[in-house]
Amino acid sequence: MKAFTPCATIIIVCSAIFSMQVFGQKAQKLSDPEIASVAVVANQIDIDYATIAKKKSTNADVVKFAETMARDHQSVIDQAVALVTKLGVTPKDNAVSKSLQSGAVKTKKMLNSKSGEDFNKAYIDNEVAYHKAVIAAVETVLIPNAGNKELKDLLLSVLPILKTHLGHAEMVQKMYSSK
Amino acid sequence: MSTAWVILRNASCLLFSILLLNSCATSEKTAPKTYTVEISQMKFIPAELNVQKGDTVIFINHDMVVHDVTEDPGKAWTSSPLPVGKSWSLVVSGSSDYFCSIHQVMKGKIIVQ
To answer: Does the reported pTM lie above 0.90?
Structure first.
């Protein structure tokens, strides 16, 4: 069976997020409850990947990175939940969040099928690809669609976290590939 | 009053004034100062800080995630994990590079002048 590549991760996330834009004017706009759902799902997916990494990897750099991902993305979810609670908004499932979830099922299956060095490389490569795709989605879809100012501000403040994660993942990826 | 006495008195006053001014200037130069580095938007702000030995630097975590402040590269000192909203103080003993060991791309510098 062909390996599930980081490129495939980008395609899955981008096609999920951008699918509503492909049809231009006909595309439905994401509402704030839908944006909240996408934000929570996207963060939860990376926590799930981290959980697999903490279970399967013995590489100190990979495990430490996974611990950071789990902690940081949970903090973002906590902030998002606090905000929607304050605003009285209930996150609403939508095509984008469902597509992200189905893509994650495939990625988790791929990660679970690997072990040792192959797993470490697959996990870090996927983290680089996933963060690139999510950053693009937050910048070009979620922030422009957010109606509530506090929700927009939250998304804006999450961007530096995602970009730092990407830099960290690329650093581990580089260290790992030079071994 | 003799002229010599007046000259002596004026000279004494002048000498005292010079010594007093010099003493004030010296104490101002050496009094330890306190600086603040804010951790915000995944950055140390300011990322580079010029201080004197003995000054105090307070790091405050204004981000939504946990950070730390750790000497780089030897980890000679560290704040340990700094939760959201918490602060940590360092009395500067020398120039140091530092980073967040949780998010290793976050870096800063303390320069003792």
So the answer is: no
